[in-house]
Design brief:
38% of the residues lie in helices and 24% in strands. The chain has eleven helices and ten strands. The strands form two sheets. A six-stranded mixed β-sheet has the order 5-4-6-3-10-9, with helices on both faces. A four-stranded parallel β-sheet has the order 1-8-2-7, sandwiched between helices. Helix 7 packs across helix 8 and helix 8 packs antiparallel against helix 9.
């Protein structure tokens, strides 16, 4: 396998083969959590307006997401794994979620135009994603760390990309070094600012747990648009 590690919007635009779109804080920590709580699928949209249009057609949809990290007025939930966890499985069981975020979701929507297969990923999905790729042995794998709003490198996404590459046999990885780089960076410190309640302090605790789920997420297009499904491995 040829494995490359790129980043931001350009990385998604140039992804080849199997594209692993990495968003640790918080979209693709939220997504597998939602599946573990019983959702059937997640529809990814670029704008809040697309989400509201889908909800008009199907009032049972659950809208989750943010713009600039801030929850969207009229959505059911923001882009917060701890908020999702508080809702509990009964709220999500057998439902369809619509997700809109500023980095991870946009990265998936972009990569679908150029890659053969697109896998949303995070620390929570790292090992299962790597095992899935190793089982398929694709000729090319593109690890894409999405960063902040597709424009600025975020250490949690960079280190998660390095971890997945390590699991694929490419390089070394030290989780203590990763945590040091991530925890004291502003991307994490904002979660401890009492003036920013939309960044709950519980979220980074959840986002930095390794290998929580034993399934993979795969994005594809169907009649509903761009849809994410769970694949058990």
């Amino acid at each position: 396998m040829e494995i490359t590690h790129t980043r931001l919007l350009e990385g998604a635009q140039t992804a080849k083969g199997v594209a692993v779109i990495i968003d640790v804080f918080r979209a693709f920590t939220c997504a597998p959590l939602l599946f573990s709580l019983g959702i059937q699928k997640s529809i990814l949209v670029s704008t809040p307006e697309e989400a509201f249009a889908l909800k008009e057609k199907n009032s049972q949809l659950i809208l989750i997401g943010e713009v600039g990290g801030i929850p969207i007025e009229g959505f059911d939930l923001g882009n917060s794994p701890s908020e999702i966890l508080k809702k509990g499985a009964a709220f999500f069981d057998d439902k369809t979620v619509v997700q809109r975020t500023s980095s991870g979701v946009q990265g998936v929507l972009t990569a679908l135009d150029v890659a053969d297969e697109v896998l949303p990923a995070s620390y929570a999905l790292a090992k299962s994603t790597a095992l899935y790729i190793l089982s398929k042995q694709p000729p090319r794998v593109s690890l894409v760390s999405m960063g902040l709003a597709l424009k600025r490198i975020a250490p949690e996404d960079e280190w998660c990309g390095r971890y997945i590459a390590h699991l694929l046999g490419v390089n070394d990885y030290n989780h203590n070094e990763a945590l040091e780089a991530i925890l004291f960076n502003q991307t994490t410190q904002k979660f401890f600012d009492p003036e920013k309640p939309h960044f709950p302090p519980e979220d980074p605790i959840m986002c930095l747990q390794l290998n929580v789920h034993n399934f993979v997420l795969r994005a594809d297009r169907d009649a509903d648009g761009v849809v994410v499904y769970r694949i058990d491995i």
